[in-house]
Design a protein that fits this description.
With 213 residues, this protein is an alpha/beta fold. Helix content is 39%, strand content 22%. A six-stranded mixed β-sheet has the order 7-6-5-8-9-10, sandwiched between helices.
Length: 213
């Protein structure tokens, strides 16, 4: 089975990604969404965790063979960077959302030398803003950021534009379109819901997809 479909099946099975087009979730921003995503649940399912971490290792080997260090995003990417780093025999660290206000006031935790080739490990990419902040912090510290690996991406235009502007590549285990298709095939949603889901993905601020309008 293709890796993106395998991970899609896994995330749906444990409800790490959960579609509810008839009763939308409300994001902190106020946007109504037909999908709920919590990839932290992958850590509590041994089989899914194995698929995810081995999948991330596979993506890194294929897309970033020169990788010297993995850096997780805080907090969701930390465990995935640690486990994947263990599988690959690579050192890891993580980047805080902001510098500590005590001690050495680190924002990057773990040893990082200027010039080292780094891959950022993220669990989820929606608009791309937070992961690009991590990339910027690492670059300012002198790292050569080869790119990002993530479990899931919405593939929103905003994130694609931001990543392109930041000149950084992202490779995900699976994406919104794949999971929507697999969800329909396996009966989590109706086939006719796919168009509504894609309409949301294309323009989250447009609520015309709600109620099948």
């Amino acid at each position: 089975m293709e890796l993106n479909k395998l991970i899609a099946k896994d995330l749906l099975k444990i409800k790490a990604v959960f579609f509810r087009p008839e009763e939308p979730f409300i994001w902190a921003s106020g946007i109504k969404s037909p999908v709920y995503c919590d990839n932290r649940l992958t850590l509590t399912s041994v089989d899914v965790r194995n698929d995810v971490e081995n999948g991330l290792a596979e993506l890194i080997k294929k897309n970033y063979p020169e990788t010297e260090v993995l850096m997780g995003t805080s907090t969701a990417g930390i465990a995935h960077a640690a486990i994947t780093g263990h599988i690959m025999g690579l050192p890891m660290g993580y980047v805080r959302g902001s510098a500590k206000d005590h001690g050495r006031q680190n924002q990057i935790e773990g040893r990082l030398e200027a010039g080292q080739k780094v891959v950022v490990v993220e669990d989820l990419i929606s608009t791309g803003g937070s992961v690009i902040e991590v990339v910027d912090v690492l670059r300012e510290a002198g790292a050569e950021v080869l790119g990002i690996v993530s479990i899931f991406t919405y593939n929103m235009k905003k994130s694609k534009d931001r990543l392109a502007e930041a000149n950084v590549k992202n490779v995900s285990l699976t994406d919104f379109d794949t999971i929507a298709q697999v969800a329909a095939e396996e009966g989590y949603i109706k086939e006719e819901d796919i168009k509504r889901l894609i309409a949301f993905r294309n323009n989250p601020s447009d609520e015309s997809w709600i109620g099948g309008k």
